[in-house]
Write a structure and sequence with these properties.
46% of the residues lie in helices and 22% in strands. With 310 residues, the chain is an alpha+beta fold. Keywords: DNA-binding, Transcription, Transcription regulation. InterPro entries: AraC-bd_2 (IPR035418), AraC_XylS_family_regulators (IPR050204), Homeodomain-like_sf (IPR009057), HTH_AraC (IPR018060), Tscrpt_reg_AraC-type_HTH (IPR020449).
């Protein structure tokens, strides 16, 4: 096992030393320290065949692997983190999770990510082919906490924690088999705790896309409302509201925004048409309401857009 401690480095150089050690053992990334005083940190690492398991204990600081980092220094591994105490924040692929003590989270070194490292964590570096052999498209589970909802997940978390203390030569067949068993357990925990949840999310995304396509083809119907849309798709109004809430909006707010966008396009392309006709074509019954809503959305009156057309 290799051990690095910033206590052996002058205070002014401690964080720079830490940055270099972590980048060398994992992936190049940018780091930022919230405070510029002393940085007492310890890093220990050991190999289990083709896997690497490490423990990091350090004050709060942020790691960001940017698109530029990925381009300049491509890597092809997954990192699995286990939070030993406190909480931290991991973000990747538009998803962000607050990881609590005892929880596991996966992230992909081949894509940008951010990780707010605080206190004590375990990191397991897993070659991509080893992870995807067990869990195809493993990257879709990035930045999602698991390992705390079931006995399967809790067993995986415990195995990761206890693997830190394995007394086995890193290059032996036994070490490789132990690493394989560890990744088998982690993959099983992901499938058991997350696969169903993500399948539901994908199903709901397909349903939302279908609903949106229907709305866009019926913008001119002034009777279009949540009850009609929900009934057309065999779902409740509550379910319809939940689908749009996932995108931070409501069904009717989205419908009106699409009507305004369609009117804006029509005014830009067909300025010779009467403004009221365009408004009526896309579901507006009151010209004054249309003008007010249009200006609130675009900062210009409908007539201003029509006049801009060459």
């Amino acid at each position: 096992m290799m051990i690095y401690q910033t206590a052996n480095v002058p205070e002014s150089a401690q964080f720079g030393y830490w940055h270099d050690v972590i980048c060398r053992h994992f992936v190049p990334a940018d780091s930022r320290l919230e405070r510029s005083d002393a940085f007492p940190a310890t890093f220990s690492t050991n190999a289990l065949g083709s896997y690497q398991i490490s423990r990091l204990a350090a004050p709060r600081h942020l790691w960001t692997r940017t698109t530029e980092n990925v381009r300049k220094a491509p890597h092809d591994e997954f990192l699995l983190s286990l939070k030993l105490s406190g909480s931290t924040c991991l973000g990747q692929g538009g998803r962000e999770v607050v990881q609590q003590a005892g929880e596991l989270a996966l992230y992909d070194t081949g894509r940008p990510f951010s990780y707010l490292l605080d206190s004590d964590i375990v990191l397991l570096k897993i070659p991509r082919h080893e992870m995807e052999m067990r869990l195809p498209q493993a990257g879709r589970f990035a930045a999602a906490a698991f390992g705390h909802r079931s006995s399967v997940g809790k067993l995986a978390s415990r195995l990761v924690r206890e693997s830190l203390d394995l007394d086995v030569a890193s290059s032996t067949a036994a070490a490789e088999r132990m690493g394989d068993c560890l990744v088998d357990a982690v993959s099983a925990a992901i499938e058991y705790e997350l696969a169903g949840e993500f399948a539901i999310q994908r199903s709901e995304k397909r349903l939302l896309d279908t609903v949106k396509a229907y709305v866009l083809s019926h913008l001119g119907n002034r009777a279009l409302d949540t009850a009609r849309v929900a009934g057309r798709h065999g779902i409740s109004i509550r379910t319809l509201n939940r689908l749009f809430a996932a995108e931070g909006t409501t069904p009717m707010r989205w419908i009106w925004s699409q009507r305004l966008a369609a009117c804006h396009t029509a005014l830009s392309q067909h300025g010779e048409h009467r403004i009221t006709d365009i408004a009526y074509d896309y579901g507006f019954a009151d010209p004054s309401h249309f003008s007010r809503a249009f200006k609130a959305a675009y900062g210009l009156r409908p007539v201003d857009i029509a006049k801009k057309r060459p």
